[in-house]
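Q: Structure for this?
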Amino acid sequence: GESVGLHLPTLSVQEGDNSIINCAYSNSASDYFIWYKQESGKGPQFIIDIRSNMDKRQGQRVTVLLNKTVKHLSLQIAATQPGDSAVYFCAENRGSNYKLTFGKGTLLTVNP
Amino acid sequence: GAGVSQSPSNKVTEKGKDVELRCDPISGHTALYWYRQSLGQGLEFLIYFQGNSAPDKSGLPSDRFSAERTGGSVSTLTIQRTQQEDSAVYLCASSLGVSGGNTQYFGPGTRLTVL
């Protein structure tokens, strides 16, 4: 069935390294994607979004890349810090549908 | 300004009891969503409100679940005759409007434990 999923359930990096979190989606009608960060005991926090008419979008220390050919989304975090340790979710919005479909999440652990 | 708030933050109840969970969306946001998150899982859509339109209840798992939104602002999610499988974190989100692409902002969630 249609789904949004993540390639890696866990990712461990050293402080200062760059992190890449990947996400695959199966519905070519998806036109809006969001990355959320969820720290323990908190709700998901918006990080960055991208629309399907773009391939790349940059924020502060974060970059989202969208490859529509292979239906792949990635989140790059530059100079990863201990405060970046959290679960990261990708979510997709399909067409005019207001519902977000979430992947299961990737746990990012930053080692000092 | 204030973000989405939810209460209570934690709720422990006995199997068979009813519970009410409250959500206060961001002021000015017309769309409100409820999600459920089981341990170590992603978010499961439950219900969606937009203005005065009929809510989309397609995600509610059973008729024990219901939700209301009064005055286009505060929402209450009610679970009747709670079961142990209802134990989860219930998250509320709001967004500016209905069209696709509106960013949803989440509250801290209510952790429900059914004994």
